[in-house]
Structures
1.
Amino acid sequence: MQPDTSVPGSSTVEFSVEGGLATVRMNRPDAHNAINAAMAAELYEAAMRCANDPAIRAVLLLGNGKSFSVGGDLKVFANTKESELPACCAR
């Protein structure tokens, strides 16, 4: 499967559509696909593309590497001032 290169600046999420199936693949295997701000934005973009494309009938969410995802990237939380965390985590 080739990533859809029309996703601007995509580096942490690969996206493709084939036969009504959208495949969204998290691509930070070195960090066990921990979700940082860049990945969160790219996952949101992929979700919006899926929601707005009537040809997509199903979505397959995968993670590259050994782990699907470990959740939020703790380095982001550790390196962010407590007062800035709500804005950092909000969409």
2.
Amino acid sequence: MAERVDCPLIQVEGNVVVPVEAASSMEEYAAYTLRPKIGQRLDDFLTPLEEKVPRKPSLGLHFESFDVSDGDEAVSQLKIDGSVGPSGSTASGPYSQRHKEV
């Protein structure tokens, strides 16, 4: 794809602990060859999580609730101002970026 575009093409890996390029310098054809290489590099990339105390405890909070098993019915129960239209300046939703051609 990089050969077909007139701008820099940058690959971003999401949800990854060890970047593929750090695990192996060659093209891997099977997960079973890549997994041990990732395992060897985990300590280089994993960092311990810090335990954080919430600013406001939530365990004692009580909320009014309603049945959400029927999505349309649940939305109809919300106080939504239907007079407000789309902004027009931003794209949103599942199809806003996914189907754009490069």
3.
Amino acid sequence: MNPESVVEATERSIKAATHLTDLDAGAVAALRALAVRIGTADPEKDNVTLPTYLKFCAALKLTPESRGVEIGASEQKGKLATLRALRGGKNDTAEGTG
């Protein structure tokens, strides 16, 4: 089985995103164009398209983070875990010390 293309995955995400309305049509069209470009771009020379695509996905709430979904949230409990998550998993010592 062939892996799903970015275009196919994008279309599936758009179809599943019941929160999108006609007001989002321009951003959705731009996201589709970026998905096509990712499939044809030379990754060695194009370092802009993929990050831009991901920003559009986030703006349209098509990523877990943009929807407020916390990966592994059931394992994290308490204020300390929340603080660590906000700090990117860093320990409690100041950066560069300890």
